[in-house]
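Human:
Class, as today's exercise, you are to examine the entry below, and be ready to discuss the fold:
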Amino acid sequence: RLADQLGDAANARAWVEEGRLIAEQAGDPAALALAADSLAMIEIAAGRPAEALACANACIRLARRAGHPIARLLPEDDAGGWATVDPLALKATASALAKEQDRSPERTGSAAEALSIDVASAINDIGLAQVLLGDLTAARGALSSSLIVREAAGNTMDIAISCSNLGYVLLLQGEAQAAVNTLERALRLQEADQSVYGAWPILQNLAIALNALGSFDRAAEMAIRCCRDARDYGIGAGVFNGLTALLVIEANRGSDIRAATLLGVTERMSESGQNPLLGYERQLRDEAVSRIAAALGPADLAAAVAAGRAMSEDAVVAMISSTPDSGRSLL
């Protein structure tokens, strides 16, 4: 999973497959479920939501067959079923499970193996896959369910991840203030219990949500923090997404040359094919480009884009760290 987070999808997939074969030979349902969940994450990162959905559902089926109590409450491969999951029953079951595991942390046997399956992670993967497939109702239902289970378990970083993903879906559904509230909770949790992955996905989503509210200064602050955090962890896609968010924000607050320069930077970064934009971010970027093109005219736009394409990484970091003037001024 760490290799996938760091952009090494080929090795991540190979290691997961090796683990799956070992688990299959050992007849270990918990390890098989972990492999299916891990592969779902890899498929999501690769932009293959249908394959991710199949893997995540396979994980939940394995948990259900093994007797996992939470898995029994979940729909069977039915996107529409996520809107009908009973949150009270889910919370009660997850809370009882967490208490049972606290009482008997050293328990072994088939029942313990079933309970070790991270069903909440598979539910989270289903939510993300449904986002990519465009079914926001199913995505919201799944991510809300994942959050309920993770809150009962009490793992701070898992709760932060579910909050970040749910906040993004709320934004896509037009609930910008609810999205900001949920994402700010995610950021507070992450800052209280930092993980190896950093905060950049939360910061990226929060920047976009604040932009939707018109809070451009705070949005820019979050986008810049996203870039710095992702750079610290060597996550090129995170830097790219943060810069793209900042491009949109600068265009919205009238910093046209600065936005056009960022367009050049992100164009160069996207040429490797490793930094695809999701539909919503692509729409925001395209709208911003149309605005700055109309404001600058062809010659000034081309000059600013060319300047951005020629920038070194250090120059880009220096630029985004500067305080922008309004309108056509870069620095």
